[in-house]
C-alpha cells in the first residue's frame, strides 16, 4: 500500500510539473497521412507545404506526416528530392483528414546541346551564372521571423564483440540509468523562435527542448549554413567563387515544377575527400537560385555526412525550408548513425528593397550582354538604380555591382557608428519552461511525427524518470540524512605529496603544489635533478567581458617559489616569482639562482635530453648558471592585436662543467663510438665559448603587431574573436647590454625583425613562412650567452615548431655575434604525391614540403630542403610525422637525413 501511494505521488508530481506550462491544446483539425514512392517505399523527410503560405512540415523516417490546420480549403504541395512534386486540393473540416500520396520519380529531359560533341558541358554555363548570383540571393532577405523545429537522433548500431563482453555490466547499467541501448535512438528535439536582420543579426529563443537521455553532440556547425556562401562548415560550396578549381560539373537534364524550369547538375570533386562535396544540385533556370540539393562529404573525423536541402518560394525568394543531415561512421569499432532534421516556418519575411527587381545574368563566355560596364560605370552607383535601368548583366559585372553595394553598406554602417568588425551578432535565450513542456505541447508544435522507435525511446526515458523520483521519495521518506563520510577536496593526504595538488583555500585563493617526483631529469652537468614548487594564487573576481579570451582573470596576484636539487654537485638552486596581472597588462619580478640553456628559446627539452643522454650517450643540453633579478612587464592593447613587452635583468653569470669526467646515469646505455661532450659549446665564430664569472645588465624590448584587423562575433552581448587573427605578424626586438651599471661587464646593441604568416591556400592546404634578420649594431663586449642562437636540431626525433625549426643544424655551432638572415617556408598539401591516391587522402594523411635557410658571416647559404608526412597514425595520433631532409651548403649537396617527430611543442 505504501509503495502504491509513492507511485501515485510521483505521478501527481509529474502532472503538476506538466501543469506549469502554459495550456496548449493540440489541434483537433488538420491533415495527416503518408508519402510513398510508386514502389510503395516510404519517403522520409519529404516536404509538405501549404501553398501560398509559409506553413509546412516534413515526413518522419517512416514517411508519416501531420500538420494542424484550421477548417478550410487548402492546396497542399508534396516534394521529395528526385521525385515529381504533387499538388493536392483538400478540404479540412472539423477533424483530421487523412491524405496519403504517392510520388513518381522525376522525369528528366536532356537538352539537345548535351548530345553535340566537342562542346563545353552546359552545366558550366549554368554554374557560372549561379555562382555570379549567389551573393545576390543571400542579400535578398532583409529580415525574417520563423519558428524552427529541429530533431537530432543518434543511434549506436553495433559494438565490437570484445566491448560487449568486457562491458556487459556497464551496458546494462547504462540502459537503466541513461536509456542507452544498442539500436535504440537517442533523441533531442528543440523548438525555437528565430529572427534575422541584415547584415548579421540573429536572435533565437528556445521555447522547448526535450531529450531522451543526456545531452549529445549535434551538427551545429551545419545549422544556419548557406550554400550560397563560399564554404559550408569548412567545406567548399559548389557555388563558391573557387568552385571550378575543386569541382567538375555535368548537366543531367531539366524538368518543370511549380511553373519553373529546373536544371539537374552533377557535382563531381576533382579529388574526393575532406573539404569537398559530391552529389547533385538543382538550379532554377533564369533566376539561378537553388531549388534543392543532395550532397555528401567526409568530415575531419572520417565520418560520412549526407546533406539534403529543399527550398521553397517565399515572396518569390527561394529559401531552405527543410534541411536534413545524415551522419554515418565507425569510431573505435563502434558503428553509429545520426539523423539531424531542421524545419522552419516563416511568420514574417521581408525582402531587401534593393533586390526586389529581377536580374538577368549573361554568361559572357557563351553570349555577350547588350551592355558591358566598366569599373568607372559601377563605382559609386546605387545597386537598385542600376538594376532598374539595366535588367541584364554579365557575370563579371554582377559580381562587381554587388561588391560595390556591400562596400557602400559598410560605409553607411560606419557613419552610424556601427562596429563593422563584428561579422555576426547572435543571441540565445532559453525559456525557463523549455525543458518542462508537456507532451500535449509537443504534440501541438512538433513538425515531424515521431517514429515508432523514437516513441519507444521517449517512453523508456519517462519510465526512468519515474523510477528515479520513486527512489528519491523513498530516500526522503526515511527522514535520514546521508552520513557517508566525504573527504573535503582540500583535505591533506600523503598521496598529494607524490603527484602534486591544488588546494582551493577559498573562492579567491588557491595554493598550487608541484611535486618534485613529477619532474626528474638527467644531464651531464647536474646529474640527476628534481624540481618542485609552491605557488599562491589570488583572484578577486573574473571579468565576464574577457571570456572570449579563455576566461582571463580581471586581476590576479601570484607569488611562489621553485626549488631544484642537483644530485651531481649536491647543490640546491631555485628562484622566486611575484606577479600582478590586470586584464591584458602584466608586471612581474623574479630572481634567484638557476640554470638556463644558452639559447633562451630552449631548443631541446630537458625531458628529451634525459632520453638522449641516458640511452644514446648524447648530451645536447648546454647550460650555464645565473644569479639574477629580473623585472618584466607586458601589455596587449587593441584586443591583443599589439603586444608590447620588456624586461630589465641583472645577472651574475657562471660557466658550468660536467659534474664528473665520465658521467654514468643509472640507466646508461653505452653506444660504440660515442662519448659525452663537454658542456662548453663549440662555435665557428669563437675559438673558445667559455667565459669568466661576470655581471650583466640587459634591457630587452619587444613589440609585435598583427598587420590585419581582427574580426568578431557577438553572442549574448559578449564579444568574441571570430577566429584567431591570422594576418601577418611583425615582431621587432631590441636588446642592449648596459656597460658599467651595477658592475655590468657587457656592452652591445642588438636589433632583430621577424615577419611570420600562415594562410590557407586550399582545402587542408596552407603556406607558412617566417623571415627574420638581425644584427649587432654594437659588439664592444659580449659573451656567448649574448649571441643570437638558432632553433637547431641534432637528434633523429624532431620537436618544436615545424615551421621555424631547422632539422639538421647544430644547436650552437653557428650561433652568431654579428649579423644573420634567416628564412623558413613550409607548404602543406591536401593533394601532392601519395595523397593523389583517394584512399590515402581519406585517411587524413597530409604531405608537406619545407625549406630552411640561414646566412651568417661564418656560414654562407646554409639550406635544408625536406618532405614530410603528417598523421602517421590517422585519427589516433595525428600529430606524429616523418621527414626526409637534404642538406646543402652554397648549393652543394652535403648529406641526407631522416627525422620522426611531432607537431607539438616542448620546452621549459
Automatic annotation (TrEMBL):
Signal sequence region: 1-19
UniProt keyword Nucleus present: no
InterPro entries in UniProt: CarboxyPept-like_regulatory, DUF5686
Statement: the UniProt record of this protein carries the keyword Coiled coil: yes
Alphabetized Pfam families for the sequence: CarbopepD_reg_2 (PF13715), DUF5686 (PF18939)
Recorded coiled-coil stretches: 388-418
Keywords noted in UniProt: Coiled coil, Signal
Protein name per the record: Carboxypeptidase-like regulatory domain-containing protein
Amino acid at each position: 500500500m505504501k509503495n502504491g501511494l509513492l507511485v501515485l505521488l510521483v505521478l501527481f508530481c509529474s502532472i503538476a510539473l506538466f501543469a506549469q506550462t502554459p495550456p496548449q491544446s493540440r489541434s483537433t483539425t488538420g491533415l495527416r497521412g503518408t508519402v510513398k514512392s510508386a514502389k510503395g517505399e516510404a519517403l522520409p523527410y519529404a516536404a509538405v507545404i501549404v501553398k501560398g503560405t509559409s506553413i509546412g512540415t516534413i515526413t518522419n523516417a517512416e514517411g508519416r506526416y501531420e500538420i494542424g490546420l484550421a477548417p478550410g480549403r487548402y492546396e497542399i504541395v508534396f516534394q521529395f528530392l528526385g521525385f515529381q512534386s504533387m499538388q493536392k486540393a483538400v478540404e479540412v473540416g472539423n477533424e483530421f483528414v487523412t491524405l496519403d500520396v504517392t510520388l513518381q520519380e522525376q522525369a528528366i529531359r536532356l537538352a539537345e546541346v548535351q548530345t553535340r560533341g566537342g562542346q563545353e558541358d552546359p552545366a558550366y554555363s549554368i554554374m557560372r551564372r549561379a555562382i555570379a548570383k549567389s551573393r545576390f540571393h543571400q542579400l535578398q532577405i532583409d529580415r525574417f521571423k520563423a519558428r524552427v523545429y529541429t530533431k537530432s537522433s543518434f543511434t549506436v548500431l553495433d559494438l565490437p564483440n570484445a566491448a560487449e563482453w568486457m562491458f556487459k555490466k556497464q551496458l546494462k547499467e547504462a540502459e537503466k540509468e541513461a536509456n542507452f541501448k544498442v539500436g535504440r535512438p537517442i533523441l533531442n528535439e528543440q523548438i525555437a523562435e528565430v529572427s534575422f536582420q541584415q547584415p548579421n543579426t540573429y536572435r533565437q529563443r528556445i521555447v522547448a527542448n526535450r531529450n531522451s537521455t543526456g545531452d549529445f553532440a549535434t551538427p551545429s556547425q551545419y545549422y544556419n549554413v548557406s550554400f550560397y556562401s563560399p564554404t559550408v562548415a569548412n567545406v567548399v560550396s559548389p557555388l563558391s567563387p573557387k568552385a571550378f578549381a575543386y569541382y567538375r560539373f555535368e548537366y543531367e537534364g531539366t524538368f518543370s515544377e511549380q511553373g519553373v524550369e529546373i536544371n539537374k547538375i552533377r557535382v563531381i570533386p576533382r579529388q574526393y575527400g575532406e573539404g569537398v562535396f559530391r552529389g547533385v544540385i538543382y538550379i532554377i533556370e533564369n533566376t539561378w537560385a537553388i531549388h534543392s540539393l543532395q550532397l555528401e562529404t567526409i568530415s575531419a573525423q572520417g565520418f560520412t555526412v549526407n546533406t539534403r536541402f529543399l527550398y521553397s518560394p517565399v515572396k518569390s525568394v527561394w529559401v531552405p525550408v527543410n534541411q536534413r543531415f545524415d551522419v554515418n561512421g565507425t569510431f573505435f569499432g563502434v558503428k553509429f548513425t545520426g539523423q539531424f532534421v531542421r524545419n522552419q516556418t516563416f511568420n514574417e519575411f521581408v525582402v531587401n528593397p534593393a533586390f526586389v527587381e529581377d536580374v538577368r545574368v549573361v554568361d559572357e563566355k557563351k553570349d555577350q550582354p547588350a551592355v558591358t560596364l566598366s569599373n568607372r560605370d559601377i563605382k559609386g552607383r546605387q545597386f537598385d538604380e542600376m538594376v532598374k535601368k539595366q535588367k541584364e548583366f554579365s557575370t563579371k559585372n554582377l559580381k562587381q555591382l554587388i561588391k560595390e553595394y556591400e562596400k557602400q553598406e559598410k560605409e553607411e554602417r560606419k557613419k552610424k557608428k556601427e562596429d563593422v568588425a563584428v561579422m555576426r551578432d547572435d543571441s540565445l535565450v532559453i525559456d525557463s519552461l523549455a525543458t518542462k513542456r508537456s507532451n500535449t505541447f509537443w504534440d501541438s508544435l512538433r513538425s515531424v511525427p515521431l517514429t515508432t522507435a523514437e516513441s519507444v525511446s521517449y517512453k523508456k526515458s519517462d519510465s526512468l524518470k519515474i523510477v528515479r523520483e520513486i527512489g528519491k521519495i523513498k530516500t526522503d521518506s526515511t527522514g535520514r540524512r546521508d552520513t557517508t563520510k566525504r573527504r573535503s577536496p582540500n583535505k591533506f593526504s600523503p598521496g598529494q605529496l607524490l603527484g602534486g595538488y591544488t588546494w582551493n583555500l577559498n573562492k579567491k585563493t588557491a595554493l598550487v603544489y608541484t611535486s618534485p617526483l613529477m619532474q626528474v631529469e638527467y644531464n651531464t652537468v647536474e646529474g640527476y635533478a628534481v624540481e618542485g614548487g609552491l605557488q599562491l594564487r589570488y583572484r578577486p573576481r573574473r571579468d565576464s567581458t574577457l571570456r572570449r579570451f579563455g576566461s582571463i582573470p580581471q586581476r590576479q596576484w601570484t607569488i611562489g617559489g621553485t626549488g631544484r636539487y642537483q644530485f651531481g654537485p649536491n647543490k640546491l638552486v631555485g628562484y622566486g616569482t611575484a606577479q600582478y596581472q590586470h586584464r591584458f597588462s602584466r608586471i612581474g619580478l623574479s630572481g634567484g639562482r638557476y640554470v638556463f640553456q644558452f639559447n633562451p628559446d630552449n631548443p631541446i627539452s630537458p625531458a628529451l635530453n634525459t632520453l638522449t643522454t641516458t640511452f644514446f650517450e648524447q648530451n645536447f643540453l648546454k647550460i650555464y648558471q645565473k644569479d639574477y633579478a629580473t623585472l618584466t612587464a607586458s601589455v596587449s592593447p587593441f584586443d591583443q592585436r599589439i603586444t608590447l613587452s620588456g624586461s630589465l635583468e641583472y645577472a651574475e653569470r657562471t660557466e658550468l662543467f660536467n659534474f664528473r669526467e665520465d658521467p654514468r646515469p643509472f640507466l646508461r646505455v653505452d653506444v660504440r663510438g660515442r662519448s659525452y661532450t663537454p658542456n662548453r659549446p663549440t662555435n665557428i665564430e669563437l675559438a673558445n665559448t667559455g667565459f669568466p664569472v661576470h655581471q650583466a645588465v640587459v634591457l630587452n624590448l619587444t613589440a609585435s603587431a598583427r598587420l590585419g584587423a581582427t574580426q568578431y562575433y557577438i553572442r549574448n552581448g559578449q564579444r568574441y574573436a571570430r577566429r584567431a587573427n591570422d594576418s601577418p605578424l611583425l615582431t621587432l626586438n631590441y636588446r642592449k647590454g648596459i656597460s658599467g651599471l651595477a658592475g655590468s661587464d657587457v656592452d652591445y646593441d642588438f636589433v632583430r625583425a621577424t615577419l611570420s604568416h600562415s594562410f590557407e591556400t586550399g582545402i587542408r592546404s596552407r603556406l607558412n613562412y617566417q623571415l627574420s634578420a638581425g644584427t649587432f649594431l654594437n659588439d664592444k663586449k659580449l659573451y656567448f650567452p649574448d649571441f643570437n642562437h638558432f632553433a637547431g636540431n641534432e637528434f633523429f626525433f624532431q620537436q618544436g615548431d615545424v615551421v621555424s625549426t631547422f632539422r639538421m643544424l647544430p644547436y650552437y655551432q653557428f650561433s652568431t655575434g654579428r649579423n644573420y638572415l634567416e628564412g623558413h617556408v613550409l607548404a602543406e598539401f591536401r593533394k601532392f604525391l601519395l595523397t593523389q591516391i583517394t584512399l590515402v587522402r581519406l585517411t587524413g594523411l597530409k604531405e608537406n614540403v619545407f625549406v630552411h635557410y640561414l646566412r651568417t658571416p661564418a656560414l654562407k647559404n646554409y639550406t635544408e630542403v625536406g618532405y614530410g608526412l603528417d598523421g602517421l597514425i590517422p585519427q589516433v595520433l595525428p600529430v606524429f610525422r616523418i621527414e626526409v631532409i637534404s642538406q646543402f651548403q652554397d648549393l652543394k649537396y652535403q648529406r641526407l637525413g631522416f627525422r620522426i617527430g611531432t607537431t607539438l611543442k616542448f620546452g621549459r
